[in-house]
Design brief:
Blueprint: H1 3-32, H2 37-63, H3 70-74, H4 77-85, H5 89-111
Helix pairs in contact: 1-2, 1-5, 4-5
Length: about 110
């Protein structure tokens, strides 16, 4: 196994560990309520995590196309960012809950 293959396998393993944590984080954000101070801190972590997931999936797909298509996630991010810029935390919660979480859950199911 060469260095690229090892890196891809390790990244896929990390994605598998991280996806359930991201799904839980989205659930926690929704459960806290949109204007709660804890939810705003969690939202920053969610944005960072979604960025990492999209990059990791994109990277692994370049070397070993898989079942996850990063555009299923990336296509939803502009609306999420716009909702954030408008401080529309209800819309942020809806996008995370009804558009992004299902993609992440689908990926978890595809990976197992």
């Amino acid at each position: 196994m060469n260095e690229h293959e090892t890196l891809v396998i390790e990244t896929i393993d990390e994605i598998n560990v991280y996806l359930p944590k991201m799904i839980k984080g989205i659930g926690d954000f929704i459960g806290f309520g949109a204007e709660n101070g804890d939810s705003k801190k969690l939202l920053a972590d969610i944005f960072e995590g979604l960025d990492w997931i999209a990059r990791a999936v994109s990277l692994t797909n370049k070397f070993r196309p898989g079942k996850m298509c990063e555009y299923e996630l990336i296509d939803k991010l502009p609306e999420l960012i716009q909702a954030y810029e408008n401080s529309d935390y209800v819309l942020i919660g809806d996008i995370l809950d009804y558009e992004i979480r299902p993609v992440l859950e689908k990926w978890v199911n595809q990976m197992h």
